[in-house]
Description:
This protein is an alpha/beta fold. Helix content is 41%, strand content 21%.
Amino acid sequence: MQSLTGKVSTDMLSVLVVEDELTLxxxxxxxxxxxxxxxxxxxxxxxxxxxxxxxxxxxVILDIGLPRIDGLEVLKRIRAESNVPVIxxxxxxxxxxxxxxxxxGADDYIIKPASARKLMARVKxxxxxxxxxxxxxxxxxxxxxxxxxxxxxTVSSDPVSLTPTEFRLLQHLMQTPGRAISRLELLEVSMPExxxxxxxxxxxxxxxxxxxxxxxxxxxxxxVRGLGYRIQD
Length: 233
Ligand code: CA
């Protein structure tokens, strides 16, 4: 739960940049540092995992095409242990579709080449989403409890480990129980400015439902055909 346990806001946020194109990696680092982030860099998947474990960054920017262990495998291994926000760098738009199909739970996708300004905007959005100073609010629906301030979800008082995107989706559903919410609206609240498609919402929603179910919650999230989702007790 490292990514959801909000540190004090005066901490410098840290970003791990995983990219084997040296010039691109250095450019991204330069921009991140100008914005006041701490950075680490890895040029292959194996090193990325080692640095990630040692350095516990607040965010990972992860290229897909990497030597040794590719970006997808790196994401898979990170997700097995952590909900740290991950922005994937992809070389082709079609790769986003393939990624979505895998349902690995990346928080955003950027198609290269992307301007540094655009990338920085995404970084800020993802990190703000992760640790935003939300109003103190506890939402409850039967055995599910969502604390917007602690950024924590429990089922029958046991914490459930969600990614930032899954958390935002559940929060948005629980704010208006019974209301049918379109995929587009859910995409906008959970992954604003993202290049992800509405289908990304389905993938994250599938993961969210599975996690809630595994935690013992009754399935209250319903698919609204042709539109999106609603939560109902
Ligand atoms: Ca590459």
